[in-house]
Amino acid sequence: MKIAIIGTGNVGAALGGSFVRAGHEVTFAARDGAKTATVAATAGARTASTPSAAAAAADVIVLAVPYTEAIRVAGEIAVDAAGKVLVDATNPLKADYSGLSTVGGPSGAERIQKAAAATKVVKAFNTVFASLQANPGLNGQAADALIAGDDAAAKATVAGLASSIGLRPIDAGSLVGATELEALAWLNIALQLRTGGNWSSSFVLIGAPEKAIAA
Ligand SMILES: NC(=O)c1ccc[n+]([C@@H]2O[C@H](COP(=O)([O-])OP(=O)(O)OC[C@H]3O[C@@H](n4cnc5c(N)ncnc54)[C@H](OP(=O)(O)O)[C@@H]3O)[C@@H](O)[C@H]2O)c1
């Protein structure tokens, strides 16, 4: 699958490396061209000069930028990403890491869907720390990738991607469920912040209903 990853930080580098190892064709785009080239070379991926150019050449686009930039980037790539799967891996954290900025309103994913209305937004990978995105079996068993979206085919595509890198995809329902996925991610982040942990905790739903396991 041709995957564009917008962002070359913790998430972009981790997912990009895993996707390449799973046999996918990955193209990175961000703002800092030199860093983008380095991250792409390390992962065995390509680069594009802009997020829009990366989106235009991809089947699936992964948003791996800070949430404060995500709406802007979604708007920027909206035309080139139209009709395609747009994976929202972001978490709408407050700038001071005291919680989520979206509480009481739509989830970050729903706002991204609004900014890029013709794309098929799927919330995924936001509940998985970068350490696990790079190594899904880090804790001795496959971490769960909780996936929410309104388009069944788009969700199946993302479930297949998650599965291809060794995560267990769980169908968490429609895009309104992104509110819960963002809250769940925050729970894990807050736990790490409070305890000075090593950012390797992951969710595995014990006894998950067979029909929720997406691939
Ligand atoms: N870290 C985790 O374990 C983790 C896990 C799950 C989800 N998340 C979420 O995933 C998102 C990314 O996290 P991260 O830890 O990877 O962040 P990060 O390390 O700070 O990386 C952010 C990346 O976004 C790029 N970027 C920022 N603004 C941009 C713009 N306008 N256009 C294009 N690229 C832009 C930056 O590129 P430049 O350097 O070129 O500016 C950088 O490569 C966040 O929403 C985070 O909450 C993080």
What attributes does this structure have?
215 residues; 8 strands; alpha/beta; single chain; binds NADP nicotinamide-adenine-dinucleotide phosphate; Rossmann fold
Describe this structure in words.
The chain has a single domain, classed as 3-Layer(aba) Sandwich (Rossmann fold), CATH 3.40.50.720. The model has no long low-confidence stretch (mean pLDDT 97). It has 215 residues and is an alpha/beta fold. The protein is built from eight helices and eight strands, in the order βαβαβαβαβαβαβαβα. Strand 5, helix 5 and strand 6 form a beta-alpha-beta unit. An eight-stranded mixed beta sheet has the order 3-2-1-4-5-6-7-8, sandwiched between helices. The chain binds NADP nicotinamide-adenine-dinucleotide phosphate. NADP nicotinamide-adenine-dinucleotide phosphate binds next to helix 1 and helix 4.
In short:
The chain is an alpha/beta fold. The protein contains eight helices and eight strands; from the N terminus they run βαβαβαβαβαβαβαβα. It has helices spanning 10-21, 33-43, 51-56, 67-77, 108-115, 130-134, 152-164, 178-195, and strands at 2-6, 25-29, 46-47, 60-63, 85-88, 120-123, 144-149, 168-171.
Integer tally of domains? 1
Structural class: alpha/beta
Number of strands: 8
What is the CATH class?
Alpha Beta
Largest sheet: 8 strands, mixed
Approximately how much beta-strand content do the residues carry? 15-25%
Named at the architecture level, the CATH assignment is 3-Layer(aba) Sandwich
